[in-house]
């Protein structure tokens, strides 16, 4: 395939590429950027394309992989790395927003429901919501990790039944 034929084929795919990019990004500007990145990579790596194979599939694969790589890069960029002792910044309390009378009432009802549980279920569950890992709870309570996991699971089930009015 000559460079001219290759470029013409790419141009003919523009509409399809834009629709596919929109389905991936759901944002017009991001979709146009993705199409542009795809064109750039397709032209840059034209020598990797094997003649008499499906050019459309090759270009769509480039677009999909570019989208995935960009997504992974954005996730890594937004990850907070806290090098402080005791993870000071990650453990800072976050603003819960304004507290309405309804939300404080709901919080009290949830606490009441948790406190009404037997110790076998309440203690592991409270430890879990306080941030303890399953293995830490198992060590502190002298239980097997499977027992801890099942108790927390069944506690959630019991609470969902008791508090079904709060389920959205």
CATH superfamily of the largest domain: RNA polymerase sigma factor, region 2, helix turn helix motif
What characterizes the major β-sheet?
Answer: none
- What fraction strand? under 5%
CATH-level-2 architecture of the largest domain: Orthogonal Bundle
Strand count: 0
Would you tell me the structural class of the helices and strands?
A: mainly alpha
- Identify the CATH class of the largest domain: Mainly Alpha
Query: What's the SSE pattern?
Result: HHHHHHHH
Helix content: 55-70%
Q: What is the 3D form?
A: elongated
Q: Indicate how many domains the architecture comprises.
A: 2
Question: How is this structure best described in words?
Answer:
The chain is mostly helical and 168 residues long. It has two domains: 3-77, Orthogonal Bundle (Rna Polymerase Sigma Factor, Chain: A); 101-166, Winged helix-like DNA-binding domain superfamily/Winged helix DNA-binding domain (Arc Repressor Mutant, subunit A), CATH 1.10.10.10. It is 68% helix and 0% strand. The chain contains eight helices and no strands. It has helices spanning 3-12, 14-25, 28-44, 55-77, 101-115, 119-129, 134-141, 145-162. It is elongated. The relative contact order is 0.07.
Descriptors:
168 residues, Arc Repressor Mutant, subunit A, 2 domains, mainly alpha
Detail the topology: elements first, then pairings.
Blueprint: H1 3-12, H2 14-25, H3 28-44, H4 55-77, H5 101-115, H6 119-129, H7 134-141, H8 145-162
Helix pairs in contact: 2-3, 2-4, 3-4, 6-8, 7-8
Q: Gist?
A:
With 168 residues, the chain is mainly alpha-helical. It contains eight helices and no strands. The protein has two domains: 75 residues, Rna Polymerase Sigma Factor, Chain: A (Orthogonal Bundle), CATH 1.10.1740; 66 residues, Arc Repressor Mutant, subunit A (Orthogonal Bundle).
């Amino acid at each position: 395939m000559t460079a001219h034929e290759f470029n013409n084929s790419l141009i003919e795919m523009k509409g399809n590429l834009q629709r596919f990019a929109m389905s991936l990004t759901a944002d017009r500007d991001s979709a146009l950027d993705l199409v542009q990145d795809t064109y750039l990579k397709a032209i840059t790596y034209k020598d990797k394309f094997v003649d008499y194979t499906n050019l459309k599939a090759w270009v769509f694969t480039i677009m999909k992989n570019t989208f995935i790589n960009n997504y992974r890069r954005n996730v890594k960029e937004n990850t907070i790395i806290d090098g402080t002792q005791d993870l000071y910044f990650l453990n800072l309390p976050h603003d819960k927003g304004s507290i309405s009378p309804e939300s404080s009432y709901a919080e009290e009802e949830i606490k009441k429901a948790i406190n009404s549980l037997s110790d076998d279920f309440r203690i592991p569950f409270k430890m879990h919501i306080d941030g303890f890992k399953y293995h830490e709870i198992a060590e502190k309570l002298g239980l097997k990790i499977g027992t801890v996991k099942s108790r927390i699971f069944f506690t959630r089930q019991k609470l969902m039944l008791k508090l079904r009015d709060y389920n959205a």
